[in-house]
Amino acid sequence: MKRRWRHGLALAAPMLLAACATTPSAVHAPEIHPPKPAAVPLPQPSVSAVMPAQDDIWSRLRQSFAMSDCDADTHILSWAERYTRDPQRFEDTLREAMPRLMYVQQVAARHDVAGEFVLLPWVESQFQPVSSHRHQRAAGMWQIVPSTARSMGLHVGRDYDGRYDVSAATEGVMKLLGRYHADLHDWRLVDYAYNAGEFAVRRLVQQHGIPADEPAIPALPVSRITREHLTKLLAIACVVREPTRFHVSLPLLPADQRLEAVAVHQPMKLPEAAKRAGMPVAQIRHLNAAFRNGRIAADQRPTQLLLPQRNAVQWRDAQQRAADAGLTASVTPSTSPLPTLPADDGVPPPGAAENTPPLVAAASPAAPSATNRTHTVRAGESLWSIAHRYAVSVDALERWNHLGGATIRPGQVLRIGAG
Q1: Does CATH number 3.10.350.10 belong to domain 368-419?
Q2: What is the pLDDT of residues 335-388, one digit of tens each?
Q3: Which residues contact 114 (CB under 8 A, 6 or more apart)?
Q4: C-alpha distance from residue 412 to each of 201, 224, 379, 383 (Å)
Q5: Cα gap 399→413, rounded to integer Å
Q6: First vs last C-alpha separation in the chain
Q7: pLDDT score of 109
């Protein structure tokens, strides 16, 4: 599939202005006035240190696009205009989606998936963790049906549903899209396969061959819904390509609001997790909708939470303070009576439980932590699941263990950390 770059240079300036707009809700780029001089100058944050990284959000995404542009088909342009018919509403919706969108962009780049698919959740759910009774109960921002979830290795249960797990589901979807492209060799057909099913599209290719580059929407005998799905994806990409053409500004996301995965080492309720992270319960529930009953249980995997960067820092600080407190309690001499040793029959005498130091008793040696230096692979585990268990990246695991790929075997001992 050839890339089309003919708009790149001509539109670079208006795109940059749109991406740099400090008031995303404005329909047109705001008029900038110099600030009035103050009697006592106040210290100002360094804008130059922040803005280039913010602009990169959209420029990187545009550079990763691999399909047709706005003018390739009248239906693409029509849907782009439909999306932005109310510029204020469009900007507000996109601004709310920004944390998830940026997270998806990072995963897509790691899997070398065409940038248009970063915007696929916009077509499916506008990046919201919604459920639907259509399409055999599709759910989550990727709208995954249960059978597809199982094939992707996502657990779907009453207490935990991986389709709502932004991190786990995004990783699974990007692997799926990469596999589709390796088989079909055309990103347009990859979108068709995501909507209509891999085997259905493969049969069409066997009957009609790989479609030509033109028209932009392949003239294969697919359903109207499947054809429209690709049109919508190219339409939202069109808006990202040329925001000023549709009188909208693309929002920015402060660095401390970008999402990070943090490890959870013990069962807890989401309100307790919200307190540790210093954020509202409603927000942590919204970002971690996979925990359907509001509780992170010991047997749920991956045991992780997705938090804004600023809250992830607070979470790790709280975890470290708890670990330090537990260590201090275990090594500091106490003036209270020593715990009574069990009798020879193994049954502790009355009062033994009350004499046990509470922090020592609450310790959980089975929980994974930074002190665990190795992990023995169990049947059914993958590098991805192990990486999420220890809150590290797959790339780091491969580097630490000198792995040439993602293949591991039960019984294999992996090093967790560079030490």
Answers
A1: yes
A2: 444 333 333 333 333 333 333 333 333 333 333 444 457 888 887 677 776 776
A3: 64, 65, 66, 67, 108, 181, 187, 190
A4: 38, 49, 10, 11
A5: 14
A6: 44
A7: 95
CA distance 251 to 100: 13
- Domain ranges for the chain, please list them: 8-21+50-246, 257-330, 368-419
Structure tokens at 326: 């537990």
pLDDT in tens, 70-103: 999 999 999 999 999 999 999 999 999 999 999 9
d(CA 87, CA 248): 6
Q: Return contacts of 370-375, CB within 8 angstroms, 24+ apart.
A: 370/417, 372/416, 373/415, 373/416, 373/417, 373/419, 374/413, 374/414, 374/415, 374/416, 375/413, 375/414, 375/416
Cβ contact 230:217 at 8 Å: yes
Q: How far is CA 171 from the centre of its chain?
A: 8
Residue with tokens 């240190």: 49
d(CA 416, CA 376): 10
Say if CB 415 and CB 373 are below 8 A apart: yes
Tell me the sheet residues that pair with 415. 374
State pTM to two decimals.
0.66
pLDDT band at 42 (very low <50, low <70, confident <90, very high): very low
What type of residue is 409? R
Continuous H helices in 332-418: 358-362, 383-389, 394-400
At the top level of CATH, which class does the domain 8-21+50-246 belong to? mainly alpha
| Cβ(368)–Cβ(263) below 8 Å | yes
- Cα–Cα distance between 376 and 396 in angstroms, integer? 17
Picking from 407, 410, 408, 373, the residue whose alpha carbon sits closest to that of residue 390 is 373
Q: What is the pLDDT of residue 110?
A: 94
Which two tokens mark 385? 């699941």
Which tokens go with 252? 């920015």
Query: What is the reported pLDDT for 300?
Result: 55
DSSP state of 368: -
